[in-house]
Amino acid sequence: QVQLVESGGGSVQAGGSLRLSCAASGNAYNTYCMGWFRQAPGKEREGVAFIDNDGITSYADSVKGRFTISKDNAKNTLYLQMNSLKPEDTAMYYCAADPGGFCLDVRRDGYNYWGQGTQVTVSS
User: Fold this and answer.
1) Using an 8 Å Cβ cutoff, are 29 and 10 in contact?
2) Residue 124: in which H helix or E strand, if any?
3) Residue 27: CB atoms within 10 Å
4) For the chain, how big is the Rg over CA atoms in Å?
5) What is the phi/psi pair of residue 76, to 5°?
6) Does the structure show a pLDDT above 90 at 1?
7) What tens digit of pLDDT does each residue of 85-101 get?
């Protein structure tokens, strides 16, 4: 089992930055793959950024060059640094973890463990 707790969301103006954190507790084996998803009102959940156990990352095209995913294994914490934020980045952001599979597929939605979400609102 893994428990995931996100933090760091908030309101920011376009062009600003936020850093999301996701603290993981439980069996570290289950955090082999980790990632961030987001869901805006009326839209489907979409993958944003992913990282595997070797630190290799992948990103959705919409956030490439603006967002950076990272993981501190000592703290068992996942991060998402979001720069140059746009109003279309407004969404609930969720952290997810899974013990296996292809971690870097941005289209993958089948993760076993999910956080409760943190809201990000970007105003123009």
Assistant:
1) no
2) none
3) 10
4) 13
5) 50, 45
6) no
7) 999 999 999 999 999 88
Tell me the pairing of strands 10-13 and 118-123.
parallel
Is residue 82 helix, strand or coil?
Answer: strand
Residue written as tokens 């971690």? 103
Buried b (16+ CB within 10 A) or exposed e, 77-114: bbbbebeebeeebbbbbbbbbbeeeebbebebeebebe
> 123: closest CA among 10, 44, 20?
10
Q: How far apart are CA 75 and CA 110, in angstroms?
A: 25
Query: Considering only CA atoms, which of 89, 122, 102 is closest in space to residue 35?
Result: 102
Q: What is the rounded distance in angstroms from the CA atom of residue 87 to the CA atom of residue 81? A: 16
Residue type, 1: Q
How far, rounded to the nearest angstrom, does the alpha carbon of residue 121 sit from its chain's CA centroid? 15
Do 18 and 82 meet the contact criterion of CB atoms below 8 Å apart? yes
Nearest-CA neighbor of 52 among 32, 36, 67, 69?
Answer: 32
pLDDT in tens, 23-32: 999 877 788 8
Cα–Cα distance measured from residue 16 to residue 14, given in angstroms and rounded to the nearest whole number: 5
